[in-house]
From TrEMBL:
Alphabetized UniProt keyword annotations: Hydrolase, Protease, Thiol protease
Protein name (Swiss-Prot/TrEMBL): Calpain catalytic domain-containing protein
Active-site annotation: 199, 367, 388
PANTHER family recorded: CALPAIN, CALPAIN-5
Biological process annotations from GO: proteolysis
Length: 518
């Protein structure tokens, strides 16, 4: 059976390669700079060498991009290490000394951030989690990107903007949680883009949260909340080269010190991707995993940068879900019917991110949006539902609020992912059919500029001429949390490719996608 699945997958990839432009997405300098990171460990904890020696005893890992990807969940090992450290320690007054420190990605609150170290400056004094000298050279070739990254660094710098690295487990008086609400936390409205220009990346996560929330739960597993609260460690299940592997992190996240009178001293929001529900830490920790893989927040900035491995939303969604096919489709208004057929037929199988090219009625050009839904409303009219990862700046054109999607006297049944707001009459998103809306989401929906909007399909094709599809994703919304199907875990080298399909080959693309959905 395994050979048959691989053969089928190879046949699909071969078919794609015959009808598309293949874009190689391999990093240029990421691997060579990873070795330097181990020398940058500047943690003040007394048991750093203990962690390093202990983790090295677990030889069940692969090396990829200079990082260790564990074949089995390493959290039990970390928990045992913490217990051993507490039992053998003489001084127990500082429990922070007995929490996990990620020596592959060392960050702490005392380091001053800089764009790049001076020629004679120790690289270890530069936080690798923000920018490094290697990717700074990339930005020197694109001058208009330097001010944006410098702005982010100025905000993140502890002495200037009130940003610092803090342990997630120390942010709140109550016990911290990855998911504060089992029924509300994993929701596209909960993913907000921050100061980094990673719109496609954020939109990809929101698309997965919308259609496959159990994939997000599966990524963190069952032991993460206990580990996060007591041991300061998080393991995240990802799919490098299509194979399930665990990436180990500590729970340091980048936070802002709030100045509000009723929340003095509270550190909450991140300058990059964060949650609408502030106690949901899964968004920031999931992003941190990708920052660790990429090497810096700076390397996630920008939509189209093919030499940056996981910046493109297709590669990010593939790493998150293990999906075997990632296709970027380019089309024109003459392809409206074909594209509707493609997008509608892959509704529950492929996560989608679309790229805007027009500044009109509130749309932001050169910006990535989540494509949440494609379907028909009253009189068979075709519509799409989109989301701006900023959580605001919605489209304000014809039918944006969903009021034209159906009329009460027409008897049109809304898809289960929508409901009509009692107060405003707008069609709004709901993650689960019949579920009560979280108060923060209800307030978000009451605002007519909450980032989610509807658009006539013909206008959508005109304004969004590029769509990225990644799938098929196997864990459906109604499915139990189970290991991902082996169909998408073949580990074939072709998973390192994203296919660009242009309008001349769309009929072929429709057949290929249909074959992957069975």
């Amino acid at each position: 059976m395994a050979e048959e699945r691989i053969t089928k997958r190879e046949a699909i990839m071969r078919q794609l390669s015959l009808h598309s432009k293949i874009v190689q997405l391999e990093p240029h300098e990421l691997v060579s700079t990873r070795a330097n990171r181990l020398e940058g460990l500047t943690s003040s904890t007394s048991n750093t060498s203990f962690w390093k020696d202990f983790i090295e005893q677990a030889a069940n890992f692969d090396e990829y991009l200079g990082l260790r990807w564990y074949r089995t969940d390493p959290l039990p090992l970390i928990q045992h290490a913490c217990e051993q450290a507490r039992e053998t320690a003489i001084l127990t007054d500082d429990m922070q000394k007995f929490k996990f420190v990620d020596w592959e990605f060392p960050v702490h609150s005392q380091v001053h951030l800089e764009v790049s170290p001076a020629p004679n400056q120790d690289v270890a004094k530069c936080i690798p989690g923000v920018i490094t000298s290697s990717n700074c050279r990339d930005f020197q070739t694109i001058p208009n990107r330097i001010p944006r990254i410098q702005h982010f660094i100025n905000k993140a710098n502890c002495s200037k903007g009130g940003w610092s690295w803090e342990r997630a487990s120390s942010l709140y008086n109550t016990e911290c949680s990855l998911f504060s609400s089992p029924s509300h936390s994993i929701d596209p409205r909960n993913v907000l883009q921050g100061k980094v220009g990673n719109c496609g990346f954020c939109s990809g996560f929101a698309s997965v949260a919308a259609g496959w929330p159990n994939v997000i739960k599966h990524v963190f597993g069952e032991n993460s909340q206990l580990s996060l609260a007591k041991n300061g460690a998080v393991s995240i299940l990802l799919y490098p080269r299509g194979e399930p592997r665990y990436l180990l992190l500590d729970d340091y996240i980048l936070c802002k010190n709030e100045r509000d009178d009723d929340r003095v001293g509270r550190k909450t929001r991140s300058p990059s991707m964060h949650s609408l529900l502030e106690k949901d830490l899964w968004v920031q920790l999931l992003e941190k995993a990708f920052v660790k893989v990429q090497g810096s927040y700076a390397s996630l900035d920008g939509y189209y940068k093919y030499n940056s491995l996981y910046r493109h939303p297709a590669r990010a969604i593939q790493l998150l879900t293990g999906a075997p096919v990632a296709i970027e489709v380019h089309y024109s208004t003459s392809d409206t019917d074909t594209m509707y057929s493609i997008l509608h037929s892959t509704q529950d199988k492929y996560a989608k991110v679309v790229h805007c090219r027009k500044r009109i009625d509130g749309l932001i050009p050169n910006h990535g949006y989540s494509l949440l839904w494609v379907g028909r409303g009253e009189e068979g009219k075709r519509w799409v539902c989109l989301r701006n990862p900023h959580g605001q700046a919605s489209y304000k054109g014809y039918g944006f609020d969903g009021s034209l999607l159906c009329k009460k006297d027409e008897g049109v049944t809304l898809p289960k992912c929508f409901t009509v707001c009692f107060y405003t009459g707008r069609v709004v998103w709901q993650q689960e059919e019949g579920s009560e809306c979280h108060p923060d989401f209800a307030l978000c929906d009451f605002n007519d500029d909450n980032g989610i909007f509807f658009m006539d399909f013909s206008r959508f094709i005109e304004c969004f001429p590029i769509t990225t599809l990644v799938g098929p994703i196997k864990l459906a919304v109604s499915a139990a949390v189970t290991p991902v199907n082996a169909d998408i875990c073949t580990g074939d080298s072709s998973s390192d490719l994203v296919f660009e399909m242009h309008r001349g080959n769309l009929s072929c693309l429709s057949e290929i996608l249909a074959s992957t959905c069975h």
